[in-house]
Amino acid sequence: MSGQWKQRPEGGGWFAIWLIRSIGRYGGRAVARVLLYPITLYFLVRRGPERRASRSYLARVLQRRASLLDVARHIHTFAATILDRVFLLSGQLRRFDVGIQGLADLHAYLDAGRGVLLFGSHLGSFEVLRVLSRERPDVTVRVVLDKGHNPAMTQLLDALNPDIAATVIDAAQDGPAIVLAIQQAIDAGHMVALLVDRAGPGEAAQLAPFLGREAAFPSAPWLIAAVLGAPVLLAFGLYRGGNRYDLVFEPFSDGERVPRAQRGPRMTALIRGYATRLEHHARQAPYNWFNFYDFWEHSDDGSHADPTPAQLVAGPAAAGAGMERRGLVRRA
């Protein structure tokens, strides 16, 4: 992710989130969904860089020239998942028809008393993970989130569900504190969720093939998994239209502790394997991709390499900072 994109101005911030929350709560989901059309049109017209990034990505994933209608559908899909966030975070889970795949693999770890790392992405809705509270009310989902980086979303979470807000692991802490918090959650048998597809400026990352060209993926989450020896499951909450989602879990790593000398090759293999699975699901649900910037742009400043000891400490904070959705909601 380029520094220039991170500096894109917010287009509403707290007010935009408050507005969509209010419409959803008081007007109902049906009324709010009607309003998504003018919202989509506004962003389609006003947000040129995001519109161009959308068209570039869609051309890759659809393997054809993307039309303006494709871009509008892409924006509308994102807006729909943001609206649904209001209901998912407020515990109104029964509004949604969620098909779950791979739940047996997750149950196997949890029944053995093992905590797990759930590695997600900005593909689909990560909040749909909340339906796990119906399947495993005995297990807590802890999300790594930089509260200070997105205060509007933090306020929304506090207002909608203070109980969920209390389970957030704040990525604004120093690196060792974050790793310790994750380790304590894993040791307690919890699920710890992170988004692992965005590498920020200066963050240690590795390049892997993705949709026809190499893209940068952050190293820190995989380093945490290797150091803690925690099992990793990939999680994809794919929006299928209306009130339908597919929540897919894929076992990815069984949680072996990797000796320091072997971490470089092992992390490279894991990141490349993750990019392959991410590409698979992106092709299956192309309009669910919510990285509205040039995902394949990467610097040559040395950040896209194995992490140094200093980056090992700072890395988890950078990884957590990618949890909140940038792009059209924060910046539009």
From TrEMBL:
Q: Do the record's keywords include Manganese?
A: no
Q: Where in the cell is it found?
A: Cell inner membrane
Q: Which UniProt keywords apply?
A: Acyltransferase, Cell inner membrane, Cell membrane, Membrane, Transferase, Transmembrane, Transmembrane helix
Q: Name any one Pfam family assigned in the record.
A: Lip_A_acyltrans
**Where is it chiefly localized?**
membrane
- List the InterPro entries hit by this protein, alphabetically: Ac_Trasf, LipA_acyltrans
Q: What is this protein called?
A: Acyltransferase
- Tell me the GO molecular function terms: acyltransferase activity
> Has UniProt tagged this entry with the keyword Protein transport?
no
- Which sequence ranges are marked TM in the entry? 220-239
